[in-house]
Amino acid sequence: MSALSLTALSACQQEDTPPQQFDPAFIEIGREIAQTQCVSCHSIGQSGDSPRSDAPPLRTVLGIYNAESLADDFREHIHVGHPDMPDFDFTVKETEGLLAYLTSIQVTDK
Ligand code: HEC
């Protein structure tokens, strides 16, 4: 997996983080956020191009970013290289929801 290098970079990686197991309720929370806050630039479904050609479809971002480092970014507002990204301020619940949703839509080419 290409996320390995990112994992290695994050010094405080926690080994005891449970594997991805998401409550459908969280996926719903995340879907809601994506539909209201991300869809103007990103494709948020399992197919289709992003409205903004420079914004990757969200179904691919976990292939670029390790889920945990992405979670950290979300928790501390998003700092994942968004030039015109609005300043998101997610609660823990929203962050988990967003990650759950992102995970649920990933299409990895494995
Ligand atoms: C105003 C437009 C806009 C909105 C709204 C937006 N994004 Fe983005 N996003 C971008 C652009 C443009 C990029 C590509 C940035 C780059 O590659 O430098 C991007 C990239 C990303 C990436 C990959 C980071 C990278 O550097 O490749 C993630 C993850 C992401 N967005 C998540 C989200 C999430 C989650 C939301 C909703 C909560 C969201 N974005 C809302 C424009 C937006």
Short description:
Helices cover 44% and strands 0% of the residues. It is mainly α. It has one domain: Cytochrome c-like domain (Cytochrome Bc1 Complex, Chain D, domain 2).
Explain how this protein is built:
The protein is mostly helical. The longest helix is centred in the N-terminal third of the chain and has 15 residues, at 24-38. The protein has one domain: Cytochrome Bc1 Complex, Chain D, domain 2 (Orthogonal Bundle), CATH 1.10.760. 44% of the residues lie in helices and 0% in strands. Bound molecules: heme C. Residues 33, 37-38, 40-42, 52, 54-56, 61, 64-65, 70, 80-86, 88, 98 line the site of heme C.
What profile does the largest beta sheet have? none
**Head-to-tail CA distance between termini:** 9 Å
| Top CATH class | Mainly Alpha
From the spread of the alpha carbons, the general shape counts as globular
Mean pLDDT: 75
Give the beta-strand count: 0
> What's the helical proportion of residues?
40-55%
Bound molecules: heme C
Helix/strand-derived class? mainly alpha
Strand content: under 5%
CATH architecture: Orthogonal Bundle
Q: Can you tell me the residue ranges where pLDDT is under 50 for at least 5 consecutive residues?
A: 1-14
Give the helix tally. Answer: 5
Fourth-level CATH superfamily? Cytochrome c-like domain
Rg of Cα set: 13 Å
Give the count of structural domains: 1
The H-and-E topology, N to C, reads as HHHHH
CATH topology: Cytochrome Bc1 Complex, Chain D, domain 2
